[in-house]
Design a protein that fits this description.
By secondary structure, the chain is of the alpha/beta class. It has helices at about 15-25, 40-50, 55-70, 85-90, 110-115, 125-135, 170-175, 205-215, 255-260, 270-285, 285-300, 305-315; strands at about 1-10, 30-35, 70-75, 100, 120, 140, 160-165, 185, 200, 215-220, 245-250, 265-270.
């Protein structure tokens, strides 16, 4: 399949790069249109998108699409793609279907962008409800995050504690402050908590190092970002399984659409549940390994980027 993908290069989540790598490894012909670049000076990026200058970045993407003639154009992080790029792609005569894939909370300001897509996929069923409540008319579908099954992870000794790799938010800090036994924390701005000595690494984790951290721990903790999530799962619900780590997550509404709680994932509803799960993880490595293996099998069967692309193609 010929697939043209647009989005932000160098984002913290690495969503764009992971999806493209997976689809290329699956044998698809994938071309990238860089709509945003974290490494580019914002002033230069603004000039490249300025309509008064002909929006050269948008024109380059449109010309590439014309020469490539893809079967599908997909915008990852769709509502963050600059409007001038989406407008010019949408206006292409005889263009292929233009789909968006959205994983963050949005407002009514995204209405014009949504209207340019033939279909918008959401990683969170709550975002589909929001799409309807805000009066967006493009057809919408549920399309959770996914993994690249081609990723190879080296075996290494595992720490018995959980690891949590994320930026802190007020909700996350509140939960972590109540975890009774130490865990490993990675991400900018984490600070010590009174009463428990968590192993804190207050820096951003490079995408290439993430799977190694999961492989070095018995389990990966997930706590929702209250600013972005309504009902859905994030990449942290899926990726750790590729490294053989069990996932310990708050019980989001979408969880049972993707996993079987208690068998393929460890779900908690309050900090009491979370501390009980962590205590058993520390004491029972065989139990943790069994959860991780069942979760890994589920992810490889149902939650790969290949599966997600199949769902997009079926929706064309």
């Amino acid at each position: 399949m010929k697939l043209f993908v647009i989005g932000k290069l160098g984002s913290v989540t690495h969503w764009l790069e992971d999806a493209i790598n997976a689809w290329r490894a699956d044998g698809h012909d994938v071309r990238l249109g860089v709509a945003r670049n974290a490494a580019l000076n914002p002033a230069i990026e603004g000039l490249l998108l300025a309509k008064a200058l002909g929006a050269p970045m948008a024109e380059r993407i449109v010309r590439t699409i014309g020469r490539f003639a893809p079967d599908l154009v997909l915008a990852i992080g769709a509502y963050h793609v600059p409007a001038v790029i989406l407008e010019r792609i949408a206006a292409l005569p005889g263009r292929p279907p233009l789909f968006g894939w959205v994983g963050d909370l949005f407002t009514r300001d995204a209405r014009d962008a949504a209207a340019l897509f033939d279909r918008v996929a959401y990683t969170d069923s709550g975002l589909i409800d929001l799409h309807g409540r805000l009066g967006f008319h493009s057809p919408a579908l549920y399309l959770p995050h996914a993994v690249d099954p081609h990723v190879q992870v080296d075996e290494r000794p595992r720490r018995s504690s959980m690891v949590f790799v994320a930026n802190p938010t007020d909700h996350r800090r509140d939960v972590v402050s109540q975890i009774a036994a130490p865990i490993s924390l990675y991400g900018p701005d984490w600070k010590p908590f009174p009463g428990v000595e968590h192993d804190i690494h207050a820096h951003r984790v490079a995408p290439g190092d993430l799977m190694g951290l999961y492989a070095g721990h018995r389990a990966a903790l997930n706590i929702r970002n209250e600013h972005n999530v309504l009902a859905g799962l994030n990449q942290r619900n899926f990726a750790p399984y590729l490294a053989g780590a069990a996932v310990v997550t708050d019980h989001q509404a979408d969880l049972e659409q993707c996993f079987e709680p208690g068998r393929e994932v460890l779900a908690w509803r309050d900090v009491g549940d979370l501390n009980a799960i962590h205590a058993r993880l520390l004491a029972d490595p065989a139990w943790a390994a069994a959860i991780a293996e069942r979760g890994r099998r589920r992810v490889l069967a149902d939650h790969t980027y290949g599966r997600r692309l199949g769902a997009l193609v079926a929706a064309k």
